[in-house]
Write a structure and sequence with these properties.
By secondary structure, the protein is of the alpha+beta class. It has nine helices and nine strands. The chain has helices spanning 16-24, 39-50, 60-68, 70-79, 116-134, 143-150, 161-177, 196-200, 203-212, and strands at residues 54-55, 82-87, 92-97, 109-114, 140-141, 181-183, 191-193, 222-228, 234-235. The strands form three sheets. A three-stranded antiparallel β-sheet has the order 1-3-2. A three-stranded antiparallel β-sheet has the order 8-4-9. The longest helix has 19 residues, at 116-134.
Length: 237
């Protein structure tokens, strides 16, 4: 439908003829339907909005629609003050809130607030991704490796080790839920750190976060943009 979608990068205006061709192919999905997009394009748009990440390795059909219909998806998202971020090499996509000095942008993306331990895990995963990239490898590790790393942050006077262990396990599960960890094919336990983490948190952002967030002593959180809505986090600029 949009054979030239790969020629259009972030922030560009999609060609009107490609959007019109897609809209003209639309059939009514439900009674009283006033929408103009095919059902699979609508479902992909909803999945992007639900977020936080579309992983083409895990959902190849959804990824194919994202790439094929990039122009019309980007147009619809711009109507909502959101931008579509793509990494074609690693097949990941997510949404980023538009920031503008020219207009008061309403915020639709929710932010998933991370706890102290969740932030510690995020930094660990990001550093492992950087190390693996420098060696030309994939960032693969087991849940046990993650849990062992998080033990460093257990307080010496902690009297409830079981609770701390549950918090660490919950942090790993949340990273999986956010799409930052994906199961490695052919392995029951080992997981790969999603390349999306590089786009969500580039190196300079991690350096800033590491400096600002005294991970050894402060029980604070950071915010990660997720899908539309506000069921699990707080709205923010």
């Amino acid at each position: 439908m949009n054979s030239n979608s790969e020629d259009w990068s972030e922030g560009t205006t999609p060609p009107a003829d490609s959007i019109q061709a897609l809209q003209e192919s639309q059939r009514s999905v439900f009674e009283g339907d006033a929408g103009t997009l095919p059902q699979e394009t609508r479902r992909t748009l909803v999945q992007l909005l639900a977020g936080p990440v579309v992983d083409g390795q895990r959902n190849p059909k959804v990824w194919d629609v994202v790439v094929r219909d990039e122009a019309v998806l980007r147009s619809r998202l711009h109507d909502l003050y959101m931008d579509l971020v793509l990494d074609r090499d690693h097949k990941v996509a997510f949404l980023r809130q538009v920031v503008s000095d020219e207009v008061d942008v309403p915020i639709l993306l929710r932010r998933n607030t991370l706890s102290f331990i969740e932030t510690a895990l995020l930094l660990f995963l990001r550093l492992r991704l950087t190390e693996s990239d420098s060696q030309g490898d994939r960032a693969v590790l087991s849940p046990q490796e993650m849990l062992e790393h998080l033990k460093v942050y257990e307080r010496s006077d902690n009297v409830d080790q079981a609770r701390f262990t549950r918090q660490c396990e919950s942090a790993v599960e949340k990273a999986k839920k956010l799409g930052l960890l994906r199961k490695l094919a052919g392995s029951n336990e080992r997981m790969e750190v999603s390349p999306a983490l590089k786009l969500i948190f580039p190196a300079e952002e991690i350096e800033r976060l590491t400096r600002a967030y005294d991970i050894a002593s402060k029980q604070e959180g950071v915010a990660l943009e997720g899908g539309a809505g506000d069921d699990e986090g707080e709205e923010g600029a």
